[in-house]
Amino acid sequence: MSDIKHGLEVLKQNVKIAPTNPGVYRMISKDDEVLYVGKAKNIKKRIVWYTKFEKLPTRLKRMVALVDKMEFIITTSEAAALLTENELIKRYHPRFNILLKDDKSFPYLSLNMHEDFPALKKYRGKKTAGTKYFGPFANVLAVNHVMDVIQKIFMLRTCRDNVFKNRTRPCMLYQIKRCSGPCTGMISKEDYHKSVKEVVRFLEGKNTTLQEEFSKKMIEASENLNFEEALVLRDKLKALSAVTMGEALAYGGLKSVDVIGLYRLQNLAAVEVFFYRGGQNYGNVSFFLKQTEDAESFEILEAFISEFYVTHDVPKEIIIPEDLENAAFLEDALHTKIVLPKAGEKVKLFESANINAKAALERYLSQTTSIRQNLAQMKDVFGLEKIPQRIEVYDNSHNQGSYAIGAMIVATPSGFDKKSYRTFNIKYTSNTNDDFAMMKEVLTRRFEHMGDENRPDVILLDGGQGQLSAVYQALKDYDLTGISIIAISKGPERNAGKEFYHQKDKESFALEYRSPLAFYLQTIRDEAHRFAIGTHRKKRAKSIYKSSLDEIEGIGAKRKRDLLRFFGSVEDVKAASVTDLQKTEGISKKTAEKIYKYFHK
User: For 268-290, what is the HEC assignment?
Assistant: First the structure.
C-alpha cells in the first residue's frame, strides 16, 4: 500500500509542474526502468487522470505503484507527439505499454509519370516525386489481381525498362491483348498516355465515368463504321463492368478507407485491417499485440492506431469497432477521420473485420501452442537448460564456390522472427567450396557482434559431426554458457524424417519417424535452406546485371544509367570517342577521358 501512496504522491507532485502543451511523458521506476511512455494533447490533464486511482484498470494500478519519477517532452503538435512516443516505445519497450510488433511492408502499384510510356509496376520502398502510387495492398496476390484487371482493360506495359528499350518486335502479351505494344510503336505516345490517365481514374475509383466514356466512344466508333475500334471498346466495357458490378454496391463509396477489427482471447489481442482504395478491396492483414492483459479494448485500438500509422500511409477515413477516448487527438495528429458507424453498410464492414480478427487469433494460438509443445519436448530430448526462446539456424549456399553466402534464420515460440534474419557475404574464406571453413567464418562473425539481447539458446546447424566439431573449434574463445549447439544431418537415403542429431560429447540419435518434434526441426532447417538459397540467387542475379562500367572509378548508378540510355549498350560506350561521350548529360571532359582510357588501355 505504501508503494501505491508513493506512486500517487509522485504523480500529484508532477501535476504541479507538468506543462499544458502537447507532448510525451515517461513513467520511471526507482531502478530507472521506463515503465510507460504516453502522449497527450495536454500533458497536465493526462497526468491528473492517473491520480484517479480507483478508475484505473488493474494494469495501470500496478504501474502507478512502481512510479518514482516522471519526465516530459514538449512537442510542437499532436503529430510530433505521436512520432516521439513511437520512437521512445521502440527504444525502451516499456512493460506497461501495449506493443505492436510490426515488421510488415506493403506492396503498391506505381506509375512513373515522367516516362514517355510509363510501366505499371509492383513497388515497395521509399516514394519519389513524379511517380503515382496506389495502395497499400495487403499482399502480392491482391496486387496481382488488380494488375491482371488493368492489363485486360487498359493494356499498359508491365515489362522492365531495359527489356522495353531493346525489343524489336512485340512480346506475347501484345499477341494476347494484354499490352498495347509501345515498345515497337504499335501505339502512339498520345494514345498511350490516354490509357495511363484512364488507369489512374480506375485506381481512384472513378469507374462510373469511365464506363460512360467507353460506352459513348463505342457508339461513335460503330456509327463511323470503325467496327474494330468499337469491338475493342466493347471488350473493355464488358471487362470493366464485370470488375465493378459486384464491388460497386459493397465498396463503391470507400475511396480511401481502412476498416479495423479487434478480437481478444487468453490475454492476447488480434487486430485485423482491411484496406479499401478507389472503391475496391485491397486485402486484409492480421496483427498480434503484446502486453494487453487488463487493457481496455479502446486502449488496444488507440495503441495500434498510434503505432501503425506512424510508419504506414494514413487513409482519409478509419472505421473502428469501438469508441476511443482519444479519437480527437489521433484525428488531429494523423489528419484523418476516425468513425464508429452506428448503422448501415459500414457496420457490416467492421463486424466482418472482427470475425476475421477472431479467426486469425485462433489460428495464431493453435500454431503457437503447437510450437511451444515442440519446444518443451525439445528441452527434454536434447537435455537443454530451459525451453528455448531463440533458436538460430545456419546454412550456406554457393554455386561451385561462386557467390558464396552464409544465412541465419531465427525461430521463437511465436514463430519465425524474420526481422532478425541475417546474411553473411563470405569474405575471408579462400576456398568457398569448403563448407566447414565457411561455417566457421559465419559463426565467428556472428559471435563478434552478439549482445545479451540477441543471445541464442540453441544453434542448429545443417551438417554432421564434422560441421559440429568445426563450429566448436571456431568458437573456442567465446563464452558459450547457456548455448546448446546441435547439428542435423540427413539420414539413410537422405529421407526427410530419418535425420540424425549430433551434440558434443553425446551419442548421435534419430527422433521417432514423423514425430511432431522431428517435423518441427525439419521445418526450421528447411526455412534456413530456403532463405540461404533465395539470398544466393539474388546475389547471383544481381551480378548478371553488372557491367564493366561498374569498375570505372567515378561512374555511379546514375552516370551508368545515363550512358546506357544515350548509347544503348556497353559496347557502344566502349566504341565512343571522348567527344561523343561528353554528349551524355553529366559526363564532363575529364570523366569522358577516364572512360575512354579505361576501354583503350
Answer: EEEEEEEEEECCEEEEEEEEEEE
Cβ-based neighbour number of residue 166 at 10 Å: 11
CA 545/CA 558 separation, integer angstroms: 15
CA separation for the pair 557, 549 (Å, rounded): 9
Q: pLDDT tens, 97-155? A: 998 877 788 999 999 998 999 999 999 888 888 899 998 999 888 889 888 888 888 89
* Per-residue pLDDT reduced to its tens digit, 221-237: 777 777 777 777 777 76
The three cell numbers of residue 345 are: 453498410
Q: Find cell 472505421 and name the residue.
A: 319
DSSP state of 115: S
Please give the C-alpha separations between residue 223 and each of 121, 180, 231, 232, in angstroms, as whole numbers.
37, 24, 13, 15
Q: Which domains does the chain have, with CATH numbers?
A: 2-97 (3.40.1440.10), 108-250 (no CATH), 256-363 (3.30.420.10), 391-542 (3.30.420.340), 548-599 (1.10.150.20)
Could you give the CA distance from residue 464 to residue 468 in angstroms, rounded to a whole number? Answer: 6
On whether the CB atoms of residues 288 and 269 are closer than 8 A, the answer is yes
